[in-house]
Every structure is written in C-alpha cells, then in structure tokens.
Amino acid sequence: GLLLAAFSASVCSLLAITVDRYLSLYNALTYHSERTLGFTCAMVLLMWLLCLGVGLLPLLGWNCLRDQSSCSILRPVTKDNAAVLAVTFLLLFALMMQLYLQICKIAFRHAQQIAVQHQFIATAQATSTRKGLSTLSLILGTFALCWIPFAIYSLVADSSYPVVYTYCLALPATCNSLINPIIYAFRNPDIQKSLWLACCGCIPSTFSSRPRTSSDV
C-alpha cells in the first residue's frame, strides 16, 4: 500500500507539473493571479489524498490472498488490477506527452510574437523558453526511461517470473523520485537560491536578477 501510494504520488506530481506549465503559457496574463498559494496547497493536498486512496486499495480487496494463482508481480495485487494500474499509467504518460507538445507549440508561438515586437526582450524570452522546454524534456525523458519498462513488464509478466526481474525494473521507477529534485536543483534558479540560503545563508552574486517568467519550469 505504501509503495502504491508513493508511486502514484510520483506520477501525479509530474502530471500536475506538466498541467501547471501548460496553464502558465496558455493563460499567461492571468496565471499568477489565479494560481494562489492557497489554491496550490489545496491541489497538492487533494492529490496526496487521492494517492493515499490508491495505496489503500490492497486493503479494500485488491489482493490475491485468497487465490495465490491470480497474483501479479506486484504481490499481493492481482494480475487484472495490476494491468489496470499499468494501463492507467500509460494513459497518463500519453496525456503528459500531449500536453508537452501543446506547451512547445504555445511557447514557440509566444517567442515569435515577442520577436516581432521587441527584439531585445525576445532574446531573453527565447532563452527562458528554451531552458524551460529543455528542463521539461529532461524530466519527461527520465520519467519514461524509469517507468515505462516497469509498466510494460507489469502487463506481460505474472507471479511465476523471477522476483529479481521485478526488483531490477522497480528500482529505477523508485529512483525517479530522487532524480527529479536533482534535475530541478541544477536547472531552476529559484531552487538554487533556496538551497544557497538554506546551506550558507547567502546568494552568490553570479545569480541573475531576471524575473521569473511563465516559461520557466
């Protein structure tokens, strides 16, 4: 149950970030006024409650304790229920990829519009847009490499397969939640500043004073 809740939270968090980045570009003018701190906290709390509900499913009957032959590699989840979880994951990933394509289209369209009006501002905006897109590409690419093999294996394998295969594929999926913060720490100036303040109580003068834009990730 704890593993299901943690895995669900990892997937849902990345989906929420992708949706947030899409809305920040689609509603760039009203984004900061609509996405208040209270709204963000409420959405995070709702997401975690949903993930905890998924984690409770084995206790509510999603288990193979009465019929060991129906167990999946995600013991004690049954093969049918494991297939539902895997298909749901693949659908969520497809949704994230679709949103990412829309983000690319909107970001490049904004960059072109700004370039027509103000060449100097366009250079800074284009740099921010490229950095935001590259960060999101890195996050989604890492997510796909860590999760898709495990999801596909959950569809084709059963409890008769060696357990070592399950652990070898589940380990990268687990480590994905560790990799993402590292990527953000190296790519996001806001997180870098927070880390500097937390560790040494200062911010290096090398940091740019450029304000955060809706293209940043």
TrEMBL record:
<feature type="transmembrane region" description="Helical">
    <location>
        <begin position="6"/>
        <end position="25"/>
    </location>
</feature>
<keyword id="KW-0449">Lipoprotein</keyword>
<keyword id="KW-1133">Transmembrane helix</keyword>
<dbReference type="InterPro" id="IPR000276">
    <property type="entry name" value="GPCR_Rhodpsn"/>
</dbReference>
<dbReference type="Pfam" id="PF00001">
    <property type="entry name" value="7tm_1"/>
</dbReference>
<keyword id="KW-0472">Membrane</keyword>
<dbReference type="InterPro" id="IPR000723">
    <property type="entry name" value="GPR_3/6/12_orphan"/>
</dbReference>
<feature type="transmembrane region" description="Helical">
    <location>
        <begin position="164"/>
        <end position="186"/>
    </location>
</feature>
<dbReference type="GO" id="GO:0004930">
    <property type="term" value="F:G protein-coupled receptor activity"/>
</dbReference>
<protein>
    <submittedName>
        <fullName>G-protein coupled receptor 12</fullName>
    </submittedName>
</protein>
<keyword id="KW-0325">Glycoprotein</keyword>
<feature type="transmembrane region" description="Helical">
    <location>
        <begin position="82"/>
        <end position="101"/>
    </location>
</feature>
<dbReference type="InterPro" id="IPR017452">
    <property type="entry name" value="GPCR_Rhodpsn_7TM"/>
</dbReference>
<keyword id="KW-0597">Phosphoprotein</keyword>
<keyword id="KW-0564">Palmitate</keyword>
<keyword id="KW-0297">G-protein coupled receptor</keyword>
<keyword id="KW-0812">Transmembrane</keyword>
<keyword id="KW-1003">Cell membrane</keyword>
<dbReference type="GO" id="GO:0005886">
    <property type="term" value="C:plasma membrane"/>
</dbReference>
<feature type="transmembrane region" description="Helical">
    <location>
        <begin position="37"/>
        <end position="62"/>
    </location>
</feature>
<keyword id="KW-0675">Receptor</keyword>
<feature type="transmembrane region" description="Helical">
    <location>
        <begin position="133"/>
        <end position="152"/>
    </location>
</feature>
<feature type="domain" description="G-protein coupled receptors family 1 profile">
    <location>
        <begin position="1"/>
        <end position="184"/>
    </location>
</feature>
<keyword id="KW-0807">Transducer</keyword>
<comment type="similarity">
    <text>Belongs to the G-protein coupled receptor 1 family.</text>
</comment>
